[in-house]
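Running co-folding for adenosine monophosphate.
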Amino acid sequence: MGIPKLIEKVLGVEVIMKHILEVLGDARTIGIAGHVRPDGDCVGSCLALYYYLKKATGEGIRVDLYLEPIPEKFKTVGNTDIIKQENEESIKYDLFIALDSGSLDRLGFAQEYFLAANKTLNIDHHISNTRFAGTNHVEDNASSTCEVLFGLFEEDKIDLTIAKALYLGIIHDTGVFKHSNTSEKTMMIAGKLITKGVPFSQMIDETFYLKNYHQNQMLGRCLLESILVLHGKCIVSSVSKKTLEFYDSTSADLDGIIDQLRITEGVEVAILLYETDLHEYKVSMRANGFVDVRKIAAYFGGGGHIKAAGCTMHGTIHDVVNNLTAHIEHQLSNQTSEQEQ
Ligand code: AMP
Ligand code: MN
Ligand code: MN
């Protein structure tokens, strides 16, 4: 089979690949990693690529996958015991692939392997992607990294496990096909994955909507304690470390809370903060209208998408909220003055 020539642009840094196997070359050892605090797209894309490479490459090629501990609910996708959760050995990979990660620091402990590798590849869909690898394949109009991967896989090599993993990423990053990143292409791909036998109703319920008792209590508490600022255009809620511990929960148990905050009538931006350390907060932001939350997250050292972004901030909770809302207010007032012109 002839290998289509790569189309290189931006001084050869950005590469439009036709097929993932094009970049493997003579690599015998391949490492894969996704971002810290893995979400559905991160877990889905990493598992899909792992199983695809296992299937599509011949015997004698070693493929390793590195991720921080993944939420229990994602373990139904396939055998997740293959995931390595720490730097178990010192190894220099022929090729290391970063998935769903907008910048190198997002790889967490796996950065060490990425930096040591002979060749590196970055496959992603974040508009904020810093093109940190030797070869970068970033489709910032794609709903998810899983959608990008589907385009790089040969369809007939996608088995049920790979299809389930891809479907997981797509439903999580699109909020089950409701966010504005959902396109006709997203739906076509989802359709093809369903044809492969993905148990979609069950997967959507079990990985997206199902909450345990503690998770529901945390949701209730966040809604109860939320405050409206900027004349009702912004809603803010926070979770302290103590509260997380009280409910015997981790940050993974906060999934979905930001989405509930976002659908409060009249709100332009929803903010959820959780304490990660003394005076350190992980910030999640979601926008409904014209506020670009990626810009705000990027200003504070984070990133993401226009309508969904995050960062880590330091200071008291009041400092953090004041700093964020000042940026939101600025964007809202610019918009108002543009509308008046
Ligand atoms: P989250 O609010 O954590 O669900 O993240 C929303 C989006 O922003 C996702 O696409 C994340 O990958 C991205 N994101 C979240 N936190 C950060 C961060 N600290 N740096 C860069 N991107 C982030
Ligand atoms: Mn992600
Ligand atoms: Mn993603």
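Result summary
Residues 41, 100, 125, 144-145, 173 surround manganese (II) ion (ligand 3) (CB under 6 Å).
The two ends are 58 Å apart (CA to CA).
Job closed.
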